[in-house]
Predict the 3D structure of the following.
Amino acid sequence: MNQVSVSTATTASANAYTAPAFWERLWRAAGIQSVGLFVIGYVIYGYQPQVGATADALAAFYGAGGTRILIAAVFFGLSILNLLWFAAALRTTLADAGEDGWGAAATASSAAVGVLFLLLITIAAALAYAIAGSGNNELTAGLNDFMWVGVVLSSFPRAMLIMSAAFGLWRARLISNALFGAGVAAVVLTLLGGTVWRNDGFWAADGAYSRFVSPFIGIVWALIVSRVLLTKAPATRAGW
């Protein structure tokens, strides 16, 4: 009798993890997971040297803090992985609602964001792993500045990802007009992050807007969209 009960419980547990509903909910929550991993990586990574930083500052960050950067790279990589799954869940939700175009935009923009961020993480890891310790200060400084330029230009695919969620979910009548307005504002503010080309100060490529404000907007919007996806019942057509 006990063996039958154990066998039944094991089968039920296995079925729960293989059922489409489990994966549906898991990937709908991937935005929250992505944000959490990104914040952990961001804290571990530390305060990246500014554009035109001295050789001593670059050596201290990438050389002395190399292990910290490599650990952060793992969390950033996992964050990108969950971001792509989050976009896949968003695309499935929009496709079920008949908004395939916006779903395709979410897929394309998330791929662009993922590729660009992975490139930046790869450069940081390479600097920490070998390049910064080679004594080639010019190459280290150039790659550090290149990363800041990449952060600025990432504003455009990030804005497209926010836009695809805002317009797609609104067209599908899954969010209110007020939340749609917040999404449009997030798109505009993120696009402004692509204009931060002053030499120093708040509006510089390595300034506070690029370093803190723009990422915060993306984090908040990802959490909002994740909540919307989680509160909507999975479609009758299994997407997973």
